[in-house]
Specification:
The chain is mainly beta and 148 residues long. It has three helices and eleven strands; from the N terminus they run βββββαβββααβββ.
C-alpha cells in the first residue's frame, strides 16, 4: 500500500460543463463512472481534484466549494496531479480507480471558468476509469495501491 488520503466530497451533475453538487453517497460503476453523472460512460469517467488545489483558488480570494470545477471527487492528503497515469487508487470500502489522464485541454472558457474566474482542472485535475465498482462518500479513505 502507498500514500493515503481521504475523500472530502463526492459531487455529481446531470449535465456536462456545469458545477457539480455534493451528494451523500455515489455509486461507482465498473468501466462507466458515477451512476447518474453527466460524465458516466465518457473517456473521463471520474474526475478528481485535491482540496489542496482548490485551496490555491481560495487563497486568491474566491469562494469555491466542492464541485465548483465540475470535479466528482475532492480529496485531501494526496497530491493527485503528481501521480502517474496508470496509478490505481482504492477508494471507499471496495472501489478501485485507475488514473487515465492528468489535466485536460480547455478549448474555450467553460461555464466553470465564467462562474469562478479561473480553473485548476487543466493542470491539476485527474481523470480515472472505474476498475472495480462500489459506493463512495465523504470521509472514505483513498489509497495509492499501484503506481508505475
Amino acid at each position: 500500500m502507498g500514500a493515503q488520503g481521504r475523500v472530502i466530497a463526492v459531487c455529481t451533475s446531470a449535465a456536462k460543463g456545469e458545477k457539480k453538487e455534493p451528494v451523500p453517497v455515489a455509486l461507482l460503476e465498473r468501466e462507466r463512472g458515477i451512476a447518474g453523472d453527466a460524465h458516466a460512460g465518457s473517456d473521463r469517467q471520474v474526475s478528481l481534484l485535491a482540496d489542496e488545489s482548490i485551496e490555491e483558488i481560495r487563497r486568491s480570494g474566491l469562494e469555491v466549494t466542492p464541485g465548483a470545477f465540475a470535479e466528482n471527487v475532492v480529496t485531501a492528503g494526496l497530491t493527485l496531479h503528481t501521480l502517474p497515469v496508470g496509478t490505481r487508487l482504492e477508494i471507499g470500502p471496495t472501489a478501485v480507480l485507475e488514473i487515465t489522464q492528468i489535466g485536460k485541454e480547455c478549448h474555450d472558457r467553460c461555464s466553470i471558468f465564467e462562474q469562478v474566474g479561473m480553473c485548476v482542472m487543466p493542470t491539476q485535475g485527474v481523470f480515472a476509469r472505474v476498475v472495480v465498482g462500489g459506493r463512495v462518500r465523504a470521509g472514505d479513505a483513498i489509497t495509492v495501491v499501484h503506481d508505475e
